[in-house]
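Fresh eyes needed here. I'd like your take on this protein's tokenised backbone:
***
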Amino acid sequence: MKIANHSVVEMHYTLKDADGTVIDSSADSEPLKYLQGVGNIIPGLEKEMLEKAAGDKFTAVIQPEEAYGAQNPELIQTLPRSAFGGVEELEVGMAFRAQSTEGQPIEVEIIDIDGDNVTINGNHPLAGVELHFDIEVVSVREATPEEIDHGHVH
């Protein structure tokens, strides 16, 4: 059976950046299961998965626009240390939940501290990154009506 919309897919993957640094892998764990065609994985990889079958092994290079988007400079801001009231020690790499200007929850990471100025980045950690996947399709089956209705694998 070939992968089509509303297929349940199990796959092993290794994700690397353009320099070959491994970002994530399912090699030492269970295969990733997802429902094709409903946005459970990044759009570029979902497109690459179409028409593949169990046993297929392939590589895919996904550009940022088809993954987590480009870096948005508006999501990088410098704030006064006082904006982090209640947190005594701030360190580069710390993550916080905040609200976007539209009121949506967003995760931000401290990327620089210079005296009383704290620079945060609200971009996804993989925004602007070209993603390189090594994929092995383990299995493909038709989704149940309940899985299709719920939008994910059961």
